C-alpha cells in the first residue's frame, strides 16, 4: 500500500513539475492546446 | 358525322397542345446528358448539380477541375493597360486557391498552420468525433463491463483451491510495484479526464450546466496534459522491469490451449513469472502505450509533430490498406488534418486500451483471490504461487535453496 501511495504522490509531483518546467522554458501546454478565449489574449 | 369530326379536331388540338409537356422531360434528360459530356473545366470551376448530389450522398467527387481553376496571374493585363489592376484571378478563383492550399499566402505568425486560411477538411472529422466515435467508444466500454459482469456471475472469483500455507514469497519488488502503480494511477486519471473532455458536451453540460463544466473541463485538461508525462515515464519503467519476463515461451502455448484455467475450475496450467494472458496484456500495454503517447505528444505540441502523412506513406508502400480492400491512404495533409488524425487515433486507441484494462483490473482485484496482494505488498501465499505460476514458484524455491546452501555450507568431514 505504501508503494502505491508513493507512486501516486510521484505522479502528482511529475505533473506539477512538468507544468512548471514547460512554463519555465516558455511553453504553456494549457495555452497552446486551447482556443483564444482560454489563452486570454 | 359532324360531331365526330368536331370531337376528333378537339382531340387533335389537345394532343398537340400536350406534346411539349410530354416531350419536356425527355429533352431535359438529353440536355443533362449533354451537360455531363461537357468538359467540366468549361464551367469555370463551378460545381454541377451532379457534383452537389454526389457530395450529399457522401460520394467522393473528382474536384480536379475546381482545384486547378485558380486563375492565371501570368495572363493578367499589364499594370498600365486597361483593367490592368485586376490581376489574373477572379475572387472565386482566389478563394478556391486558398481553399485547396495552392495560394501563395504570407502570414506574420510562425508555423505552417498559420498559412492555412480556409480549412475545409474538418467537417468529416467533427462529424466523426461527435457521432460514431462517441457512440462506438462508449458502447465498447459498456460491452466490456457487461462481459466482465457476466463472467463474474458465471465463473465467480477465482479462489485459491488448496489450503493457504501462511508462508509468503516475494512476487514483485518495490520498484516493480512503484512502476505498476505509477502507470495504473496515471492511466486511470488520463482515462477519466479524457472521457470528460470527449463526453462533456453531451453528458455533463446538460446535468451540471456550462459554467460548472467549464471549470471541470479546464481542470481535466490540465491533468490530462501534465499527468501524461508520468504515464510515459511509467511506461518506460514497466518495460525495463518486465520485458525479460514477457518473452513468449512454450509454456505459453499450453497455458493458452487450456484457456489459462479461466473458464474451468481445478485447471492450473503451468506458468513462469507471467502467464500467456499477462504477457499479452503486457505487450498490448507497451504497443498501445507507445502509440497513444506518440499521438498525445502530437496533440500536446500542436502542429510540431506531424506523423500521419508519413505513416500513411509507409502503410501504402507496404500495401496494407490495399490488403484490407482500401484505396491508397492520403499522404499529403494540411497541418490541421494531421491534428485531426492525431485526435481520432488517440481516442480510438484510448477506448481499446480502456476496454482491455477493465478486464485486467477485474482479474487483478475481485476476479482472483490473492492477485491484488501481489501488487499491494509484493508478497503472495506459496499456495497461490503453486497454483497460478508453478514454474516460477519452482524457480524461486530452487533459488532460495541454492542461496541457503551457499550461506551455510556443509561442514567438511575431517
Report on the structure:
The complex is a heterodimer of chains A (41) and B (414). Helices cover 76% and strands 0% of the residues of chain A. Chain A is mainly α. Chain A has one domain (2-39). A two-stranded antiparallel ribbon of chain B has the order 1-2. Chain B contains 16 helices and two strands. In chain B, helix 10 (276-300) runs antiparallel to helix 13 (335-364). In chain B, 64% of the residues lie in helices and 1% in strands. In chain B, 21% of the residues are buried. Chain B is elongated. Chain B has a domain at 124-172 and 243-401: Fumarate Reductase Cytochrome B subunit (Up-down Bundle). At the A-B interface, helix 1 and helix 2 of A face helix 7 and helix 8 of B.
Show the helix and strand layout.
The complex is a heterodimer of chains A (41) and B (414).
Chain A: H1 2-24, H2 29-32, H3 36-39
Chain B: H1 2-37, H2 49-56, H3 64-67, H4 91-99, H5 123-130, H6 132-155, E1 168-170, H7 174-208, H8 210-242, H9 250-257, H10 276-300, H11 308-318, H12 320-323, H13 335-364, H14 371-376, E2 379-381, H15 382-388, H16 390-407
Antiparallel strand pairs in B: 1-2
Helix pairs in contact in B: 6-13, 7-8, 8-10, 10-13, 15-16
Structural descriptors:
heterodimer; A: 41 residues; mainly alpha; 3 helices; B: 414 residues; Fumarate Reductase Cytochrome B subunit; two-stranded antiparallel ribbon; 1% strand
- The number of helical elements of chain A comes to 3
CATH class of the domain at 124-172 and 243-401 in chain B: Mainly Alpha
Classification by helices and strands of chain A: mainly alpha
Q: N-to-C terminal Cα separation of chain B, in Å? A: 153 Å
The whole-angstrom Rg of chain A is 14 Å
Total beta strands of chain A: 0
Strand residue percentage of chain B: under 5%
Quaternary state, please? heterodimer
The most extensive interface, with participating residues per chain, is:
A-B, 19 and 28 residues
Annotation, overall tally of beta strands of chain B: 2
CATH architecture of the domain at 124-172 and 243-401 in chain B: Up-down Bundle
H/E element string of chain B? HHHHHHEHHHHHHHHEHH
Helix content of chain B: 55-70%
Helices and strands of chain A, in N-to-C order? HHH
Radius of gyration of chain B: 34 Å
What's the mean pLDDT score of chain B? 85
Amino acid at each position: 500500500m505504501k508503494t502505491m501511495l508513493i507512486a501516486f504522490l510521484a505522479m502528482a509531483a511529475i505533473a506539477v513539475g512538468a507544468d512548471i518546467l514547460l512554463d519555465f522554458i516558455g511553453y504553456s501546454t494549457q495555452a497552446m492546446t486551447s482556443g483564444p478565449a482560454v489563452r486570454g489574449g | 358525322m359532324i360531331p365526330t369530326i368536331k370531337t376528333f379536331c378537339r382531340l387533335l388540338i389537345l394532343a398537340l397542345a400536350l406534346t411539349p409537356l410530354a416531350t419536356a422531360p425527355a429533352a431535359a434528360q438529353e440536355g443533362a446528358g449533354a451537360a455531363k459530356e461537357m468538359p467540366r473545366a468549361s464551367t469555370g470551376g463551378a460545381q454541377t448539380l451532379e457534383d452537389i448530389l454526389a457530395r450529399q450522398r457522401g460520394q467522393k467527387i473528382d474536384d480536379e477541375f475546381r482545384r486547378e481553376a485558380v486563375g492565371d496571374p501570368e495572363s493578367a493585363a499589364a499594370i498600365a493597360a486597361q483593367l490592368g489592376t485586376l490581376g489574373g484571378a477572379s475572387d472565386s478563383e482566389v478563394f478556391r486557391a486558398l481553399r485547396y492550399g495552392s495560394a501563395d499566402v504570407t502570414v506574420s505568425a510562425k508555423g505552417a498552420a498559420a498559412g492555412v486560411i480556409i480549412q475545409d477538411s474538418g467537417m468529416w472529422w467533427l462529424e466523426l468525433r461527435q457521432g460514431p466515435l462517441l457512440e462506438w467508444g462508449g458502447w465498447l466500454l459498456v460491452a466490456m463491463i457487461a462481459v466482465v459482469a457476466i463472467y463474474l456471475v458465471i465463473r465467480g472469483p477465482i479462489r485459491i483451491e488448496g489450503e493457504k500455507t501462511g508462508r509468503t514469497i516475494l512476487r514483485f519488488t518495490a520498484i516493480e510495484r512503484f512502476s505498476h502503480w505509477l502507470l495504473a494511477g496515471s492511466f486511470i486519471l488520463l482515462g477519466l479526464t479524457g472521457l470528460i473532455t470527449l463526453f462533456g458536451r453531451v453528458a455533463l453540460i446538460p446535468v451540471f450546466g456550462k459554467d460548472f463544466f467549464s471549470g471541470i473541463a479546464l481542470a481535466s485538461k490540465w491533468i490530462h496534459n501534465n499527468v501524461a508525462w508520468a504515464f510515459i515515464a511509467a511506461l518506460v519503467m514497466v518495460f525495463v522491469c518486465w520485458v525479460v519476463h514477457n518473452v513468449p515461451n512454450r509454456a505459453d502455448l499450453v497455458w493458452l490451449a487450456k484457456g489459462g484455467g479461466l473458464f474451468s475450475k481445478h485447471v492450473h496450467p503451468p506458468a513462469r513469472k507471467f502467464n500467456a494472458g499477462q504477457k499479452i496484456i503486457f505487450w498490448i500495454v507497451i504497443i498501445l502505450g507507445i502509440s497513444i503517447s506518440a499521438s498525445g505528444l502530437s496533440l500536446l505540441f500542436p502542429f510540431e509533430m506531424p506523423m500521419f502523412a508519413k505513416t500513411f506513406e509507409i502503410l501504402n508502400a507496404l500495401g496494407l490498406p490495399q490488403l484490407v480492400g482500401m484505396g491508397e491512404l492520403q499522404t499529403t495533409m494540411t497541418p490541421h488534418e494531421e491534428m485531426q488524425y492525431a485526435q481520432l487515433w488517440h481516442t480510438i486507441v484510448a477506448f481499446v486500451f480502456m476496454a482491455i484494462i477493465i478486464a485486467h483490473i477485474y482479474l487483478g482485484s475481485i476476479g482472483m483471490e490473492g492477485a491484488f496482494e501481489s501488487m499491494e505488498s509484493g508478497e503472495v501465499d506459496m499456495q497461490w504461487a503453486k497454483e497460478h505460476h508453478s514454474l516460477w514458484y519452482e524457480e524461486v524455491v530452487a533459488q532460495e535453496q541454492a542461496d541457503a546452501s551457499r550461506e551455510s555450507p556443509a561442514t567438511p568431514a575431517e
